[in-house]
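Need tokens for this chain, all 113 residues.
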Amino acid sequence: QVQLVESGGGLVQPGGSLRLSCAGSGFHFSWYTMTWVRQAPGKEVEWVSSISHSGDETTYADSVKGRFTTSRDNAEKKLYLQMNNLKPEDTAVYFCEKDGGPRGQGTQVTVSS
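Here are the structure tokens for all 113 residues:
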């Protein structure tokens, strides 16, 4: 059974940092592109970043480019999202996704003073 569990969210002030983690199980983690998406209250799901199965290639939404960094540890079956210089508009539930699905349960990130 494929399972993705996100963690690391919380409340942070503008300009602060958080590191999200996603633990994968039930599938060959290293075979798949992994993706972070987010959903703000009342808004549609927004793609944030993807990373290739090997970790050699990463892509980012313009809204987070230069502030967020995606990485992965295939040996540990973990995906990470380092978020720096956070802004109030980054407030959302963040989800990790395996290429082709499913999506985890999400972790809340709130950026507020």
